[in-house]
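can u do me a favor
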């Protein structure tokens, strides 16, 4: 007789209001036998690596020597995706086959001179200084008429394709707005029209009222596994006061954002007993001088692991079909993180 699986509360669809798509949750599938690829954590990283092109005093690929920096170090990417050096292209007027020059600014932000430390490991003042430096970058880009949008992101860990383990993030300042932000802006506008409210505030109100998925909260920021999470252990971090970008946040608000971030990522590390990998985009409004008063900037932590050593692979449904299939349920992953005890 086939065993009946109890899937109550584990097998359902939830609407993602900002992506405008259904997420399918089938949490019982997380216990299925796995014979595929597994990931192992590499440890014993030195504080200084003479082969690392991001460590102080080392030579980069283009021959430049890094300064003997003591805190945050920012430079234009030696291998930029967009940049002033992009070649000119013939602009096509064809409505289907358009193209244009890949102009913009790409930068690398080294958090710390130490090769073996993460943003999570850094002291609170050190991590806050990184966010203050990112705010300065945003204030600079807002004054550049060639820049329409700024994507700040960190790829942490080899499993997400990081080419260098030195603690850093990247900045892509572009002449176009990335698609996820365009989707959020469209969803926000539609929600305002249909419900006469702010979609981001409605999400925050729902999460605070429910409370089941909140991972960290302080006077200025809140972090939670969203009701509509795509990845296991996915966490969104919002400043409580609405800001379109980092540029307008106060020192105190940025400190609150850092505190929430470090609480979440330290829970990650303790739960998995390793520097937990993730992709972290800063979702911000464009910087093209239009009014984005409804937009509420936030950080999104997207961890690739659904179990220790087992990655969530995007396959047929996600890549082919365009809808996310989740092997876990948000409340269960939030409960795991909430149980982790952090030292003061």
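np, heres the sequence
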């Amino acid at each position: 007789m086939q065993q009946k699986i109890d899937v109550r509360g584990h097998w359902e669809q939830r609407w993602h209001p900002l992506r405008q798509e259904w997420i399918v949750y089938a949490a019982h599938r997380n216990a299925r036998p796995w014979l595929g690829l597994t990931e192992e954590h590499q440890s014993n990283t030195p504080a200084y690596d003479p082969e690392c092109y991001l460590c102080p005093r080392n030579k980069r690929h283009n021959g430049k020597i890094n300064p003997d920096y003591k805190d945050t170090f920012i430079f234009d990417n030696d291998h930029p995706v967009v940049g002033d050096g992009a070649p000119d292209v013939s602009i096509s007027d064809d409505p289907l086959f358009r193209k244009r020059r890949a102009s913009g600014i790409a930068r690398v932000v080294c958090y710390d001179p130490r090769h073996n430390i993460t943003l999570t490991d850094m002291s609170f003042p050190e991590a806050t200084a990184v966010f203050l430096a990112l705010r300065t970058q945003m204030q600079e880009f807002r004054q550049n008429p060639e820049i329409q949008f700024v994507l700040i992101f960190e790829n942490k860990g080899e499993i997400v394709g990081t080419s260098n383990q030195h603690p850093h993030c990247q900045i892509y300042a572009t002449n176009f707005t990335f698609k996820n932000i365009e989707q959020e802006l469209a969803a926000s506008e539609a929600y305002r029209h249909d419900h006469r409210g702010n979609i981001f505030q409605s999400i925050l109100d729902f999460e605070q009222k429910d409370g089941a998925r909140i991972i960290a909260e302080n006077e200025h920021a809140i972090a939670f596994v969203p009701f509509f999470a795509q990845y296991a252990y996915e966490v969104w971090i919002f400043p409580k006061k609405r800001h379109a970008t980092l540029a307008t946040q106060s020192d105190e608000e940025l400190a609150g954002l850092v505190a929430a971030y470090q609480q979440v990522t330290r829970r990650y590390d303790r739960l998995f007993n390793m520097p937990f990998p993730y992709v972290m985009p800063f979702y911000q409004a464009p910087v093209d001088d239009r009014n984005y008063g409804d937009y509420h900037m936030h950080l999104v932590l997207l961890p690739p692991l659904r179990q220790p050593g087992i990655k969530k692979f995007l396959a047929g449904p996600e890549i082919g079909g365009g809808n996310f299939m989740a092997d876990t349920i948000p409340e269960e992953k939030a409960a795991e993180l909430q149980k982790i005890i952090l030292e003061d």
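The radius of gyration is 21 Å. hope that helps!!
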